[in-house]
């Protein structure tokens, strides 16, 4: 039996008929379960509850399980706990081109989850996103097997790729292209108060991303009160920014004199006192106008993509010779700036151990794509060798 929903609905409001809720899924196991859930929706919620206190991970896990569950009941007319290895091969192909588009893909701007126009996709997934989706789903199935809910993991039959040496990072901006982005920001109009505020915000946001090598989530959930100053062994004052990164791990990011100048510039543009106050709850980046609420990750992504698009447009106006560089800017995202920061630090002979600690990498294997060192040395080298030079 196949069920057709008028439109896919988020997990929050999804109600499944008894035939599709998974209570009688063919992959269900008889015996003692380690979780109370007796249907697929509640089993998924039990899995997601493990990461509820890490919003980034929770959002990513929910998105992928939601997509698979909806595809299973809408396209195949079967519960998630009846999916076979062959079904999941078909699903992998679906991720590359979700059809019918009007059912699965949102048109225009992102809609809230309670909006009837909400859709689970915003377009076809790139190969890397497809692989990430399947990694997350494999973790889901493996946990449900371990919890005694499913008899087996249909993804465990997939061919395991041999481990290869990780490729070099390619999603970053060479220095000349980075200069184009800075030139574009500096050329933004500043005739009205709102335009001046928009310019100041763009300049500060790109400073944070480049000099700090921050992830977008490390900006959206952070405040200016987490800047602090301490004296090093030689009596010099050093500024730092405390961030909570991937896996809820805290780290200290060196705040160079250049970044402190830019912070003061941004605070003055927003009418804030030039000096930071202890435990200040002002968000690192603010909306335009009087609001003091933090910007969401989606809003920050939008600002960054708009800047890249504007810089690309100016490049295209110079002629066909610049088309490929413009296309690279159009593909760029916030994470490109993190890779750009790491690559430029490596090019500037900053010790790999310092780059690792600045970016919060777990190991040098990750950092070497672009060694723990003394904090004061890390601050000095970052200050001397990694500059934005507006």
From TrEMBL:
Chief location category: cytoplasm
Domain annotation Core-binding (CB): ranges: 38-145
Domain Tyr recombinase: from-to ranges: 168-384
GO cellular component, as recorded: cytoplasm
GO molecular function, one term: DNA binding
Localization: Cytoplasm
Keywords, comma-separated and alphabetical: Cell cycle, Cell division, Chromosome partition, Cytoplasm, DNA integration, DNA recombination, DNA-binding
PROSITE patterns: CB, TYR_RECOMBINASE
InterPro entries listed in its UniProt record: CB, DNA_brk_join_enz, Integrase-like_cat_sf, Integrase_catalytic, Integrase_recombinase_N, Tyrosine_recombinase_XerCD
GO process annotations (BP): cell division; chromosome segregation; DNA integration; DNA recombination
PANTHER family given in the database record: PHAGE INTEGRASE-RELATED, TYROSINE RECOMBINASE XERC
Protein name: Tyrosine-type recombinase/integrase
Native organism: Paraburkholderia panacisoli
Lineage, opening ranks: Bacteria, Pseudomonadati, Pseudomonadota, Betaproteobacteria, Burkholderiales
């Amino acid at each position: 039996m196949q069920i057709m929903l008028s439109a896919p609905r988020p997990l929050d409001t999804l109600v499944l008929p008894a035939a599709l809720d998974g209570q009688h899924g063919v992959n269900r196991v008889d015996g003692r379960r380690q979780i109370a859930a007796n249907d697929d929706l509640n089993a998924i919620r039990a899995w997601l509850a493990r990461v509820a206190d890490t919003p980034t991970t929770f959002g990513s896990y929910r998105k992928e399980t939601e997509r698979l569950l909806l595809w299973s009941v809408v396209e195949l007319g079967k519960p998630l706990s009846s999916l076979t290895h062959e079904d999941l091969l078909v699903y992998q192909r679906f991720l590359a081109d979700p059809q019918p588009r009007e059912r699965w893909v949102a048109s225009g701007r992102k809609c809230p989850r309670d909006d009837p126009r909400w859709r689970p996709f915003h377009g076809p997934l790139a190969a890397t996103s497809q692989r990430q989706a399947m990694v997350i789903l494999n973790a889901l199935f493996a946990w449900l097997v371990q919890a005694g809910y499913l008899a087996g993991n249909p993804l465990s039959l997939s061919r395991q790729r041999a481990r290869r040496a990780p490729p070099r990072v390619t999603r970053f901006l060479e220095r000349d292209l980075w200069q184009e982005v800075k030139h574009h920001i500096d050329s933004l109009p500043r005739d009205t108060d709102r335009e001046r505020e928009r310019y100041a915000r763009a300049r500060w946001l790109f400073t944070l991303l480049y000099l700090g090598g921050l992830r977008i989530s490390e900006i959206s959930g952070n405040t200016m009160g987490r800047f602090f100053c301490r004296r090093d062994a030689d009596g010099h004052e050093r500024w730092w920014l405390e961030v909570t990164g991937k896996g809820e791990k805290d780290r200290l990011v060196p705040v160079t004199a250049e970044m402190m100048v830019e912070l003061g510039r941004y605070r003055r543009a927003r009418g804030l006192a030039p000096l930071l106050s202890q435990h200040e709850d002002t968000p690192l980046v603010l909306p335009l106008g009087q609001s003091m609420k933090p910007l969401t990750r989606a809003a920050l992504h939008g600002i960054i993509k708009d800047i890249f698009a504007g810089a690309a447009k100016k490049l295209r106006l110079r002629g066909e010779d610049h088309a490929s560089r413009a296309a690279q800017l159009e593909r760029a995202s916030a994470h490109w700036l993190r890779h750009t920061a790491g690559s430029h630090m490596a090019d500037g002979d900053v010790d790999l151990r310092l780059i690792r600690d600045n970016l919060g990498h777990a190991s040098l294997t990750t950092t070497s794509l672009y060694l723990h060192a003394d904090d004061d040395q890390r601050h000095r080298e970052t200050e001397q060798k990694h500059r934005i030079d507006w």
